[in-house]
């Protein structure tokens, strides 16, 4: 259970800080579209951009995208490196603030976030550390809150993220710019830390990507209609054997979301 008293020093390690404008647009748009209704119902729809990096672009963009679905949304960017917080301060405005901190997620006035987004933060950690970090962050959420933790490439073409609530992980979402995709298993290099080392025979995530590649190959005739139609056909066929948590509206965006229980690692 998370401590009620914040530690004297931020919890976590400094990340590389790599960031680019629009890097997290796919994740942001998914959050706004899929979880916007939940955030609108929150009495205090504050979101945390945890570990936003050397520049504040991702926090600025998150606020803009959330407000398309949740006009009252606020964003607090939290960074463990003080110099990055100081550099971000000039970008503060109504609904956007930056604070020094880490996994303890320090918010003023005892506020608890309705959303924590942690993108490209856990890549440098050991797989065995992930569950404890997830539990700590979920323990900071407001009732009904959401944690989104995942990884993407430097320019935001390929993402994989896990959505979690108080009860733990719920879903895994794969998202890509379809024009850049040779085959679905190209996304394996962006699996979050909890899954990336499990992409080996005998593990569910490996079986899922294998089946996705097979469905993609079988849908090759649809390529003449465009990559989107091929993706939709492949995902529709995949749904016969895997519990997908979304539908064609999201598939058209180059996404597919799978129940976590179907992909969770096997016990060692």
Structure explained in plain terms:
It comes from Streptomyces enissocaesilis. Residues 1-20 are annotated as: Disordered. This is Methylase. This protein has 268 residues and is an alpha/beta fold. The chain has two domains: 25-177, 3-Layer(aba) Sandwich (Rossmann fold); 179-243, no CATH class. It has helices spanning 25-41, 57-69, 82-88, 127-140, 193-196, 204-218, 227-238, 248-251, 260-263, and strands spanning 46-50, 74-79, 96-100, 115-119, 146-152, 158-165, 168-176, 255-259. Strands 3-2-1-4-5-6-7-8 form an eight-stranded mixed beta sheet, sandwiched between helices. α3 links the parallel β2 and β3 (96-100). α1 packs across α2 and α6 packs across α7.
CATH superfamily of the largest domain: Vaccinia Virus protein VP39
What spatial order of strands do you see in the largest sheet? Answer: 3-2-1-4-5-6-7-8
Main β-sheet: number of strands, strand sense, barrel status?
Answer: 8 strands, mixed
CATH topology of the largest domain: Rossmann fold
Overall pLDDT: 94
What is the CATH domain class of the largest domain?
Alpha Beta
Terminal Cα span = 25 Å
Number of strands: 8
Number of domains: 2
Which architecture name of the largest domain does CATH use? 3-Layer(aba) Sandwich
- H/I helix tally: 9
| Rg estimate, integer Å | 18 Å
Structural class: alpha/beta
Percent helix, as a range, is 25-40%
Shape: globular
Proportion of residues in β-strands: 15-25%
Q: What is the H/E string?
A: HEHEHEEHEEEHHHHEH
Region (Disordered): 1-20
Protein name: Methylase
Organism: Streptomyces enissocaesilis
């Amino acid at each position: 259970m998370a401590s009620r008293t914040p530690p004297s020093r931020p919890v976590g390690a400094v990340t590389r800080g790599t960031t680019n404008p629009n890097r997290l647009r796919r994740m942001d748009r998914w959050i706004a579209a899929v979880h916007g209704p939940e955030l609108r119902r929150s009495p205090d729809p504050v979101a945390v951009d945890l570990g936003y990096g050397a520049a504040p672009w991702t926090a600025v963009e998150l606020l803009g995208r959330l407000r398309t679905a949740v006009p009252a949304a606020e964003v607090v960017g939290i960074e463990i490196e003080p110099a990055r917080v100081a550099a971000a301060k000039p970008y503060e405005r109504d609904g956007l603030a930056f604070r020094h901190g880490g996994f303890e997620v320090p918010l003023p006035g005892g506020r608890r976030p309705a959303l924590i987004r942690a993108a490209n933060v856990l890549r440098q950690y050991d797989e065995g550390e992930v569950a404890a970090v997830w539990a700590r962050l979920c323990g900071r959420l407001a009732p009904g809150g959401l944690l989104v933790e995942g990884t993407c490439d430097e320019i935001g073409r390929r993402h994989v993220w896990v959505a979690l609530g108080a009860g733990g992980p719920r879903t895994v979402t794969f998202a890509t710019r379809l024009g850049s995709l040779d085959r679905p298993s190209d996304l394996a290099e962006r699996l979050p830390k909890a899954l990336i080392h499990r992409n080996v025979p005998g593990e569910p995530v490996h079986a899922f990507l294998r089946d996705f590649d097979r469905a993609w190959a079988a849908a090759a005739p649809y390529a003449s209609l465009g990559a989107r139609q091929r993706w939709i056909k492949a995902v529709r066929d995949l749904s016969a054997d895997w519990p997908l948590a979304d539908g064609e509206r999201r598939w058209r965006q180059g996404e597919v979301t799978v129940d976590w229980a179907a992909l969770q690692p096997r016990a060692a």
